[in-house]
Amino acid sequence: MIDTRPCSIDSPPVLRDARPLLMAAFAALALAATGCSKARCTTEITDGTASYKGVAEGKKGQLKLDRDAMRDACRQLCSSQKAAVPDTCASRCMTDIDAAKIGARTTCSDR
Description:
This protein is α+β, with helices and mostly antiparallel strands. Helix content is 48%, strand content 22%. The protein is built from three helices and three strands; from the N terminus they run αββααβ. The protein has a three-stranded antiparallel sheet with strand order 2-1-3. The protein is elongated and about 90 Å long.
């Protein structure tokens, strides 16, 4: 008579006991490889009369954090100017930074 049961191979006890540790190490490595570490970006903009500092932190990509910190600094600039529409002012400020009409310096660091 032929055995028709599905084949299964058991892991050796050493591997079976280390499986949770290996899975945790793999997950940590995968997170590190995808850049999911927490970072903090700071942007300082100068409009000729004053400087404004914006901060963004989180697990987003560096480009996204750069833009968030820049937007935060622009919102502070707009707030000091008592802009009627703060979001429009912040968008204009970011466009001026991209066009180098307003000086900006951004630094980022991993935490």
